[in-house]
Amino acid sequence: ADTVGRAGDDLKESLNEIIKGHEDYSYTPCVWEILKEADEDPANSSNIIAFYTGRSIPKSRQDTGSGDQDSWNREHTWPKSKGFPSRGQDAHTDAHHIRAADRSVNTDRSNNDYANGGEPDDECTGCREGDGTWEPPDAVKGDAARMMFYLVGRYEGNDQSGTPDLELVDRLTHTGEPHFGKLCTLVAWHGLDPVSPEERRRNDVVHSWQGNRNTFVDHPEFVQA
Q: Cα(209)–Cα(200) distance, rounded to whole angstroms?
């Protein structure tokens, strides 16, 4: 009811009031455990599905620093170097945008902005890597976009953790600034890849831990608003 008829900054402020102040969990071990549930392979409960590649990887093959390039680790879809490098900042441990990912593909993605173009990644079918850009496969483009919009609504620089006001911009960004791109590309991806049942299930799982939701999964129309 608080969001009916609202748009622009007015809508963003209303959403922030609803979803801010979520239950914060430790990066280790809690975020690992959340991802094991949120990104579980529906066909094999012993595995997770890696975000970009779609590979099914045993939960037990969690990255322990051994150098196993085919293990899985935690991918900050909004890179932590762009606004929240400290584990004490809520966005650093917010599972609504942290995904289980193939270790080496996570390394390839680095902290690049989301945008179209580039050369095919040598390991991730459907991924393209450019000069400072990363394009995920079509099947998860919308997921990526809606996670970015969640962060913009959740973090307005008004929580107690020191996470700054996060904003999407229509350009490439640099390490250290609390901005991420590219905005117009992400709006397009949101339209190309609608919310899936798997995405709704993930939203439910993270909500069961953190107590807040990705409202752009629940209400896709809020992106355009």
A: 15
What's the DSSP call for residue 62? Answer: B
Summarize pLDDT for 120-131 with one digit per residue, the tens.
999 998 999 999
- Residues in CB range of 60: below 8 A, 6 or more apart: 46
Would the pLDDT of 2 be above 70? no
Residue 199: its H or E element: helix 197-210
Least Cα distance to 21 among 217, 160, 188 occurs for 160
Tell me the two tokens of residue 162.
Answer: 């020191």
Q: For residue 27, count other CB atoms closer than 10 A to its CB.
A: 15
| Burial of residue 217, with CB atoms counted within 10 A of its CB: 0-12 exposed, 13-18 middle, 19 or more buried | buried
> Which positions ≥6 away from 39 have C-beta within 8 Å?
48, 49, 51, 99, 100, 202
- The predicted structure's pLDDT at residue 5: 65
Q: Check if the beta carbon of residue 125 is closer than 8 Å to that of residue 138.
A: no
Give me the residues paired with residue 47 across strands: 58
Which residue has tokens 């905005």? Answer: 183
Burial class of residue 45, CB neighbours in 10 A (0-12, 13-18, 19+): exposed
The residues, ordered by sequence, that sit 6+ positions from 24 with a Cβ below 8 Å of its Cβ are 90, 93, 161, 210
CB 186 within 8 Å of CB 114: yes
Give the list of residues 6+ apart from residue 27 with CB closer than 8 angstroms, or none.
Answer: 74, 87, 92, 93
- State the pLDDT at residue 11: 87
Give CA–CA dist 146/24, Å, rounded: 21
| DSSP SS3 for 204 | helix
